[in-house]
Every structure is written in C-alpha cells, then in structure tokens.
C-alpha cells in the first residue's frame, strides 16, 4: 500500500474512533418539550396526581366525574390565575364546606405542579 493511502486510511480510522467516543448531548425528555399548559393538563388528568377528572368534566378527559362543576369558561368565572391557584391550594377558604381536596395545603401537589395546572385550567 502506498504511504499516502496508508496515511489517509489511518486518519480516517482515527476520526471514526474519536467520533465514537465523543458525547453527544442527551436528547431532551418529553416533559421538556411539552409546554407548561400541556404539562398542567397531564397533571390534571393524572389519576395519581391532580385527578381533576374524578370530580370535573374537562374537554378531552375520559370518564369525568360530575361532583364538581365542569371546568369551562374559566376566564369568565375567575378574575385571575391567582384566584384559581388559591382555589386549588385550599378551597375551604372560599367555601368551608367544600369537598374539594386542598391540593396545596395538604401537599398533594407541589407548588410547581399547582402552577402548571393553573396554566392549563386558565385555558379552559
């Protein structure tokens, strides 16, 4: 084999070997690709987390409950996202006889999870 050809083959082999050892950035998780609203919807529909569908009818939800009011026209029913968050955090402040779980007060959901659900509910 000629010297030039051997050098080219060796250089190619080194380049291939180095390429195999470089670390490519990890692909983003599905959650990172989802918008905050989509993440909130996922939490709201999750039977082990928000479980909003246990009591409320929500567009796109399967097997909704009917104990609570349908979650529609939320911007007309609440003046701000803060009011929705307060309702989720501890509904008994506004209605001491509420059967809705106090998701924030009892640490059922984290503050970040509550914020995501609020963003989703605000779109309804």
Concise overview:
This protein is mostly helical and 124 residues long.
> Per CATH, what is the topology?
Cytochrome Bc1 Complex, Chain D, domain 2
The overall pLDDT average reads 83
Low-confidence stretches: 20-25
CATH class: Mainly Alpha
Q: Features of this protein?
A:
single chain, 124 residues, mainly alpha, Cytochrome Bc1 Complex, Chain D, domain 2, 6 helices, 47% helix
Molecular structure report:
The chain has 124 residues and is mainly alpha-helical. Helices cover 47% and strands 0% of the residues. Helix 3 packs across helix 6 (111-122) and helix 5 crosses helix 6.
What is the fold's blueprint, element by element?
Blueprint: H1 3-21, H2 30-33, H3 36-45, H4 74-77, H5 81-89, H6 111-122
């Amino acid at each position: 084999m000629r010297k030039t050809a051997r050098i080219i083959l060796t250089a190619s082999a080194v380049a291939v070997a180095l390429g195999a050892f470089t670390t490519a950035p990890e692909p983003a998780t599905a959650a990172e690709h989802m918008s905050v609203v989509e993440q909130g919807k996922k939490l709201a529909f999750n039977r082990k987390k928000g479980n909003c569908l246990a009591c409320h009818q929500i567009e796109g939800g399967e097997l909704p409950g009917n104990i609570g009011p349908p979650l529609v026209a939320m911007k007309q029913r609440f003046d701000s996202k803060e009011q929705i968050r307060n309702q989720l955090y501890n509904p008994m402040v506004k209605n001491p006889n509420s059967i809705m779980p106090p998701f924030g007060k009892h640490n059922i959901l984290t503050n970040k999870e509550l914020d995501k659900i609020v963003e989703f509910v605000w779109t309804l």
